[in-house]
Amino acid sequence: MIRVLIAEDQALLLGALAALLRLEDDLEVVGQARNGQEALALCGTLKPDVVLTDIEMPLMTGLELAAALRDQGAATKVVIVTTFARSGYLRRAMAAGVRGYLLKDAPAETLAAAIRSVHEGGRAIAPELALESWSGGEDPLSERERQVLRLAGEGRSGAEIARQLHLSEGTVRNYLSEAISKLNAGNRVEAFRLARDAGWL
């Protein structure tokens, strides 16, 4: 049996994914998580073979979850299932050690086949995304610029960002300025939108 943990913050979709996978004779859903932090903790105790995760989740994104598992040297493999068909997300997912990347409108049999392929050491990338990733631009942002820009896009003030990331307000301004400049944006709002649409946040 392939042991699968599902991480998805939308309860209805979480239940639907679990129900679909339980129809497969060789897949066992061993746990469900509503955010990345919960999923990471469950991976430590349940040791699933594969984690099926969304990207955008509270507390820790699916990409951050994948990177944390990679950094821990965990044997668990990660498959992203998302609505975001953006080459920037795919590139970041690959850099985080993700083995599969599928869209949520993929047929159930495609999802099950992807889990099996990844479990056996292969990769499973939605064909339309694989093609797009070759034509997409490189992510110009550093990890710290990405963090600061993401928080700014959520409406946080410079002081709030500084407190959360343990930086000075001047350093936060510098990171924002760099991000705005790299994206050729007019302000932080436009920079956030451009980076989000490219899949870099």
UniProtKB/TrEMBL annotation:
The keyword Nucleotide-binding does not apply. SMART domains: HTH_LUXR, REC. One of its GO terms (molecular function) is DNA binding. GO terms for biological process: phosphorelay signal transduction system; regulation of DNA-templated transcription. The modification 4-aspartylphosphate is found at residue 54. The keyword Phosphoprotein applies. Residues 134-199 form the HTH luxR-type domain. Residues 3-119 form the Response regulatory domain. InterPro entries: CheY-like_superfamily, Sig_transdc_resp-reg_C-effctor, Sig_transdc_resp-reg_receiver, Tscrpt_reg_LuxR_C, WalR-like, WH-like_DNA-bd_sf. Keywords: DNA-binding, Phosphoprotein. Pfam families: GerE, Response_reg. This is Response regulator. It comes from Pseudoduganella aquatica.
